[in-house]
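Input record (one chain):
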Amino acid sequence: MSSGTIIGAGAPSARTVRLGTRGSALAVAQSSQVARAIVAASRQIGTDLQVELVPIRTRGDVDSTPLTRLGGVGVFAAALREALLDGSCDLAVHSCKDLPTTPVPGLHIAAIPPREDPRDALCTAGGVGLADLPPGARVGTGSPRRAAQLLAVRPDLQVVPVRGNVPTRLSRVVGSVVGADGPMGAVREPDLDAVVLALAGLRRLGLDDYATQPLALPQDGPRAGTPGGDQSAQDASPAAAARTPVMVPAPAQGALALETRSTAGTEQDRPVGRPGADTSPRAGVAPRDPGLAAALAATVSALDDPLTHAAVTAERALMRHLEAGCAAPVGAVAVPTALPEGLTGLRLDAVVATADGRRVLRESVTGTRADASALGEAVAQALLEAGAADLVDLHAALPGRGRREAP
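The corresponding structure, as predicted from the sequence alone:
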């Protein structure tokens, strides 16, 4: 992607929205998808916007240091947020699950569009599922949540930490048939038997053919409808569980968050930001059209999906109530469910597991979308009462990361 790429170029009078994006293939695919949606929505409501993609380089894209030492997945969002604050862009698109939990003064989550499939997927070279991987197979993941749930059903696996963009990680299983993406490149010879990746990312990159086995959500798997609490003694045998594996995804996995300045588009209303931070526009940034803020707000709000927004709110409220750090092996997912009188509500499922997968707590609740935050808090409280805080260090966090909060 070159600097200044314009999507949806319109009439000379069209206002230009500068959308900051990381340079990875997945980030560009997500940002381009949102840019096209903005252009389409603006033409429907008459705001007449075109979108310029502005590349933003983040340390997480170019440094192969493990995320546990870089500061967690929040390192990906930090540079985009700096660009928003200093006026280099008007809008940023984040993978919602990667957003740091500490709010940034002057920034606002303006919309959460419809969610892609939130499931995780096992990617293997030979097309075998989790149950058929050889004993001691090497499975790559950098997520404590994924590692714990894998080991819960296959304790013999060797979990290998991995870094890099989606094609880079996938290449460690299938080799150089997957092109390099970013400075970390792709490997020539595979060194893993499998990796676990978010199905949403694979689909957005057109790589979903490599998803050997999508891992079921708890609402769809063999444990659906079973009582909550400590499942260690209730689960079926590991062999049976591995045949129909359930993996609870990260909160907000598969969802995108569209973030703007609280008063995007106006120089005079530029946010204060952190104490001592330079929030003046970067050199060469022209004063913005005062009408852009209103046009952008109206257009982006049209992209918000209430059902996805409610689900993400419930999932992140759970993490906030648990005061869970980003290194804690905790998963949560909310999906639509039928309520009495034909209403559509949410079912929220969550899991807390020890790092070795030997102890697993599961809780769930069903309620209305209007009560999304309360649903998250209720499941979190049930987990705490079941002993989650004694089971794992819920406050485990990567350097530089805070607690999760509802958007």
